[in-house]
Amino acid sequence: MGRDHRALGTGRLREAFPDLFLNGGIAKGALAKGIAEIDAEVESRFRTAWAHGRYTPALDHLAPPDIPYANAQHYARRYLELAEN
Question: Where are the domains of the chain?
Answer without folding.
Answer: 5-84
